[in-house]
């Protein structure tokens, strides 16, 4: 018994539990000892809380934590929005129930697959559903860090696959975007300049939308993207003369319409009394603008310009290392995700033609030389244009050997050709028993 009375009349509470310090105290009354006993027994064993907390309560703790508030503003916004349908369907479940019954999470995924977006009126995309599960995983990861649960059980949940995008930007759209930089509407001009820079810089849309004037180095012709996707590193990229010219035009536009803004491309905060009136550029709105003015076709998205940069660079023979330095893709596999290069591009055709003349022709030459029974020394002499010994060869030059193709006859495999009798090897005799 953890509570017992001493000969002096006092009451002693003595509790030993694995993972917790030994508790041993004396109290004057039994009621006081019983209350302390109940309090000590309610403490979690081995430092873990019993996971009775619901997902909704856990989200509130996570959203108020320093771990959440130190994340990027876009990450906070995304997680806050994506967790709402998760809490609506799973918020009242305790963590231990979700951990022991993963079918509840799969049922939620199936339910969201049939859901229709209130904003677009279309079925939810796989990306939206995947981000909802990612938001749930972020909460459970934090719970593991705070020792509410032992493991991130969402990690084993199969998430909806990401739809692969292969759209490229045809020359007519690039020409319309370039013409849009001279449109009479200043909003169209800025949207066109943003897409133009995406095409010729090859950066991510978020990187360009957050680019500040202080990170543009005019004399050396480069720019610094800060806090990038890869390990939050900074990346310096090259700016071509045409890109610098577009940036100077954008600088004049920014000084006229957004004086004091630190961003190269600026959007205004929705609230008029917002402490920070200038925000990073809303490039999704720029796409809608270009669609409304028939500058780009349906299905266009900002990331297609980055894919066009990488695909065209591959078509023109640029190495993966140079592409990765400019675009921030740190591995060959990550560059290949964007590779939609046309095998019929001019440089690709030329490379295949060169392969045909240099490799395939030499293989054919070697094959005919072997048919004629040339020795290795004769073959080397013929390849170098030197006289070839006539023993046993009949030809003296490379041209003679290649001309022999007309005289070499290969026996047909069909028709009236006499067939050789099939000779079977004799069977091995069995050993005498």
Automatic annotation (TrEMBL):
It comes from the Bacteria. Residues 164-353 form the Tyr recombinase domain. GO terms for molecular function: DNA binding. GO terms for biological process: DNA integration; DNA recombination. Residues 409-433 are annotated as: Disordered. SUPFAM superfamilies: DNA breaking-rejoining enzymes. Keywords: DNA integration, DNA recombination, DNA-binding. PANTHER family: INTEGRASE_RECOMBINASE HI_1414-RELATED (PTHR30349:SF94), PHAGE INTEGRASE-RELATED (PTHR30349). This is Site-specific recombinase XerC.
């Amino acid at each position: 018994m953890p509570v017992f009375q001493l000969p002096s009349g006092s009451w002693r509470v003595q509790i030993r539990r694995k993972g917790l310090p030994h508790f041993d105290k004396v109290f004057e009354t039994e009621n006081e000892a019983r209350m302390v006993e109940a309090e000590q027994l309610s403490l979690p064993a081995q430092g873990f809380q019993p996971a009775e907390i619901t997902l909704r309560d856990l989200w509130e703790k996570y959203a108020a934590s320093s771990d959440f508030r130190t994340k990027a503003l876009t990450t906070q916004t995304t997680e806050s929005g994506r967790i709402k349908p998760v809490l609506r369907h799973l918020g009242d479940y305790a963590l231990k129930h979700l951990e022991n019954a993963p079918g509840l999470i799969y049922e939620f995924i199936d339910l969201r697959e049939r859901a229709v977006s209130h904003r677009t009126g279309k079925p939810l995309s796989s990306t939206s559903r995947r981000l909802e599960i990612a938001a749930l995983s972020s909460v459970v990861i934090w719970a593991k860090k705070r020792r509410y649960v032992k493991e991130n059980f969402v990690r084993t949940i199969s998430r909806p696959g990401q739809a692969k995008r292969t759209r490229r930007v045809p020359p007519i759209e690039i020409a319309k975007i370039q013409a849009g930089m001279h449109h009479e509407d200043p909003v169209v001009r800025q949207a066109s300049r943003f897409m133009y820079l995406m095409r010729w810089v090859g950066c991510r849309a978020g990187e360009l939308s957050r680019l500040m004037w202080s990170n543009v180095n005019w004399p050396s012709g480069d720019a610094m993207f800060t806090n990038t996707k890869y390990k939050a590193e900074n990346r310096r990229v090259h700016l071509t003369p045409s890109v610098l010219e577009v940036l100077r035009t954008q600088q004049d536009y920014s000084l006229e319409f957004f004086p004091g803004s630190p961003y190269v491309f600026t959007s205004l905060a929705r609230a008029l009394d917002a402490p920070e009136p200038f925000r990073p550029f809303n490039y999704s709105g720029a796409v809608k603008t270009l669609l409304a003015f028939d500058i780009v076709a349906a299905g266009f998205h900002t990331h297609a310009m980055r894919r066009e940069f990488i695909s065209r660079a591959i078509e023109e023979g640029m190495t993966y290392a140079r592409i990765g330095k400019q675009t921030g893709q740190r591995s060959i596999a990550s560059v290949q995700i964007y590779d939609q290069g046309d095998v019929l591009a001019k440089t690709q055709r030329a490379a295949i033609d060169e392969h045909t003349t240099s490799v395939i022709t030499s293989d054919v030459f070697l094959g005919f030389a072997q048919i004629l029974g040339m020795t290795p020394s004769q073959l080397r002499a013929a390849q170098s244009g030197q006289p070839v010994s006539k023993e046993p060869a009949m030809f003296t030059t490379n041209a003679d050997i290649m001309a022999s193709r007309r005289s070499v006859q290969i026996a047909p495999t069909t028709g009236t050709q006499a067939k050789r009798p099939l000779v079977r090897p004799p069977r091995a005799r069995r050993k005498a028993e």
